[in-house]
Amino acid sequence: MTTGQTDYIQKAIRSAEQAAKEDKAQNYEAAAQHYMMAVDWLKQAMKFDTMSAQMKQTIRPIIESYGQRAEEIINILKNGSDKRKAVADVDNCRRMMQYMVTDPKYFRFEKRIHIPLPDLKERALMFKIHLGTDTFHTIQEDQWIQLARRTERYSGADIAVVCKEALHRPIRRLCLATHFKQILNPKFDDHRQLWLPCSFDDPHAVPLTFDKILSAELCEPPVTLVRNSIVCR
After folding, report:
1. How far apart are CA 81 and CA 83, in angstroms?
2. Whole-model pTM?
3. Residues of the signal sequence (predicted)?
4. Residues 153-180: what's their mean pLDDT?
5. 114-121: long-range contacts (C-beta < 8 A, 24 or more apart)?
6. How far apart are CA 171 and CA 159, in angstroms?
7. 15-51 residue pLDDT tens
8. What is the mean pLDDT of the chain?
9. What residues have CB less than 8 Å from 220, skipping those under 6 apart?
10. Domain presence at residue 114
């Protein structure tokens, strides 16, 4: 519960206490004014986004109860009746508001935790993690530091977006490629010949599209560092 929200509820409690006091003393005009003030303060408190759904659900019938009592008093004044109605319900509402202010289940705390931006070594490590150990790439160990230097003031989420874009580019290249060439599988445990997208003027280029090649025979284009940016070739 924020400070402003608590202030509004405290003001509503004070208005409700004064309203009940005036109501019992049959000072109906003053009582009606204080009931309506309590309603207004509670409506202001409900405008805060930090108020929990449970607390709003509890406050709504309180607003309705105070509003109904104010209308009853107005009718008493209008009809000239001096018959006083019991104010037990509004007293219960006032006690409920006091309980809400102190019971943590009715509100949630806003706690901000400052997380500093990653330093040079941390950014380099994040690039490695987000790119993945199974990704086919040609980035050398010293080039991770180059990437980290180029991404000063980047957060971990920013680096994740950069890596995600780099990982999507090989898929786009496979889909758009019109020529492929055969290369040895870059994985050391498998020495099969695979098809890799290439330029049409490559001396080993063969006119093909990826839908004509079995998925097991496709080699994804490697993620490569170009001008200190990670792309696929």
Report:
1. 6
2. 0.47
3. none
4. 87
5. 117/153, 117/154, 117/155, 118/154, 118/155, 118/156, 118/159, 120/145, 120/148, 120/149, 121/148
6. 20
7. 888 888 887 787 878 888 888 888 888 888 877 776 7
8. 78
9. 136, 170, 171, 174
10. no
**Do residues 102 and 190 share a domain?**
no
Instruction: Round to whole Å and give the CA distance between 57 and 71.
Output: 22
Domain that holds residue 171: 120-232
Give the tokens for residue 184. 């040895």
Tokens 């202001």 label which residue? 44
Q: Are strands 179-184 and 206-207 parallel, antiparallel or unpaired?
A: antiparallel
Residue 185 falls in which region: left (phi positive, over 0), alpha (psi -120 to 50) or beta: beta
**Residue that has been written with the tokens 């290369």 in this structure:** 183
Report the C-alpha gap between 85 and 76 in whole angstroms.
10
What is the spatial order of strands in the sheet that 179-184 belongs to? 193-197, 179-184, 206-207
**Domain end residue (candidates: 41, 75, 106):** 106
Structural domain includes residue 48:
yes
Round to whole Å and give the CA distance between 195 and 181: 5
**pLDDT, tens only, 74-99:** 777 776 655 455 454 555 555 555 55
